[in-house]
C-alpha cells in the first residue's frame, strides 16, 4: 500500500525552494538530516506539498527516483524527487482543515505537528485528504 507524505516547501528558509518545487513538479529537502527523508519515498507514494501558514498547495504521486542537486554552493545538499500527475491547488487546504478531515476518521485526539520537514500520514487518512482536495480544491 502506498505511503502518504506531507512535505514542507521550505518557504520560511528560502522562498525560491517553494517556487522551484511548484514549477518543476517535485518535492525536495535540504541538508542533514532532512535531505535523507526524501530518500525514503517510494514509487506511487502520495505526496502533498505544504506551504507554512498557507496549507497544502500541491500534490502528486512519487516517481521513486531520488535525484541530487547542489544547494547554496554546497554539493548534493538537495535531495529531490519528481512527482507524477502533479496538481497545483486552486484553493490551498489549510492545516486546520487537514486536521479536521483526518479527525473525522481518527477521532478528536488526532493532531499533526506541522513544523516538520516531512510528515508521514496513515494511508486511510491521506486518502481522505486526497479525495477532499479532488472535490473542493482543484
Structural overview:
This protein has helices at 15-24, 35-38, 95-106, 123-136, and strands spanning 4-8, 26-30, 46-51, 55-62, 67-71, 74-93, 118-121. By secondary structure, it is of the alpha+beta class. It has a single domain, classed as ph1033 like domains (ph1033 like fold, Roll). Strands 1, 2, 3, 4, 5, 6 and 7 form a 7-stranded mixed beta sheet that branches.
What layout of secondary structure does this protein have?
Blueprint lengths: L3 E5 L6 H10 L1 E5 L4 H4 L7 E6 L3 E8 L4 E5 L2 E20 L1 H12 L11 E4 L1 H14 L2
Parallel strand pairs: 1-3
Antiparallel strand pairs: 1-7, 2-6, 3-4, 4-6, 5-6
- Total discrete domains: 1
Number of helices: 4
Report the sheet with the most strands, covering strand number, pairing sense and barrel closure: 7 strands, mixed
**Structural shape:** globular
Task: Flag low-confidence runs.
Answer: none
Report, as a whole number of angstroms, the end-to-end distance: 25 Å
The CATH topology is ph1033 like fold
The CATH H-level superfamily is ph1033 like domains
Number of strands: 7
Mean pLDDT: 97
Report the CATH C-level class.
Alpha Beta
Query: Helix coverage percent of residues?
Result: 25-40%
Structural class: alpha+beta
Cα radius of gyration in angstroms? 14 Å
Q: What pattern of helices and strands is seen along the backbone?
A: EHEHEEEEHEH
> Strand content of the residues, in percent?
35-45%
The CATH level-2 architecture is identified as Roll
